[in-house]
Design goal:
By secondary structure, this protein is α/β, with parallel strands linked by helices. The chain is built from 9 helices and 10 strands. It folds into 2 domains: 175 residues, P-loop containing nucleotide triphosphate hydrolases (Rossmann fold), CATH 3.40.50; 72 residues, no CATH class. 32% of the residues lie in helices and 23% in strands. The protein starts with 12 loop residues before the first strand and ends in an 8-residue tail after the last helix.
């Protein structure tokens, strides 16, 4: 077997030789990753392989001790999640950072609320709820989300899949360059998981590259263009669902098989 090589445009997001230690515990040991425009890159690995640490370094939740991260070819230094968001990288964590008491539209614009024009917005800081609701409907429609017709419904009244849809829609609305999804279907049923996978495909169709962290192999092989396999704090291989099977991926992930890493 040979590592899947991708000859295309330059990576939109690239990590090279990242090292991150927590005392004597090594989280990353020279990990590298490339995300190309308009693709879904799945990240898989056993517990303790460094998946979460890698993603946290890419999104500013952790600062690597060594190595570099480049966005659109330029080196970036993320010291906090707000830094990555400012550069167009949006992350949807497994815990879903939504405000249950607020409605769908308010959650989409959480932290980025639109103000009314003129003195009402600049002086009194009045929110332009009408414009936020209109744009929220447009964003949900663009993603093909048909289960959220009423954007004035409080999020606490939504199902798990609908809440996930709100979080993904928010990331898509503001993640102008990269969207990172951390186990987006972990707590969902079959029907709701299907909706999330369709949303991921919708993001790719819009040209938004996606990093998908998941333990669900069938879903990974269904939706991913390439699969980054993390093992022992570094990249073991990057493979393609077109050339490798789930058995191959598990063998590389567990160390039963080795793959040359380009």
């Amino acid at each position: 077997m040979s590592t899947d090589s991708t000859s295309r445009d330059a990576p939109i997001l690239e990590a090279t030789s990242l090292v991150k230690t927590f005392g004597r515990v090594v989280g990353l040991d020279g990990a590298s990753l490339e995300l190309y425009p308009g693709e879904v890159l799945a990240v898989i690995g056993d517990n303790g392989a460094g998946k979460s640490t890698l993603i946290k370094c890419l999104t500013g939740a952790e600062v690597p001790d060594e190595g570099e991260i480049r966005l659109e070819g330029r080196r970036v230094h993320f010291k906090r999640p707000q830094d990555s968001r400012a550069h167009g990288i949006e992350t949807v964590y497994q815990t879903l950072a939504v405000a249950p008491a607020l409605d769908v539209a308010a959650n989409l614009f959480l932290g980025r609320e639109l103000r009314k024009p003129g003195p009402l917005g600049t002086v009194l800081r009045a929110l332009d709820k009408k414009r936020m609701r209109r744009q929220a409907k447009e964003e949900l429609s663009n993603l093909g989300i048909s289960t959220l017709q009423d954007v004035t419904v409080p999020v606490e009244n939504l199902s798990g899949g609908q809440r996930q849809a709100v979080a993904v829609a928010r990331a898509a609305a503001f993640g102008s360059k990269v969207v990172v999804l951390d186990e987006p279907t972990a707590a969902l049923g079959v029907r709701e998981s299907r909706q999330v996978l369709e949303m991921i495909a919708g993001l790719r169709d819009r040209g938004v590259p996606v990093i998908l962290i998941s333990h669900d192999m069938p879903q990974v092989f269904e939706v991913a263009d390439r699969i980054h396999i993390q093992r022992l704090g570094k990249r073991a291989a990057t493979i393609s669902p077109r050339t490798h099977s789930m058995t191959d991926a598990v063998a590389i992930m567990t160390g039963a098989a080795q793959e040359s890493v380009s």
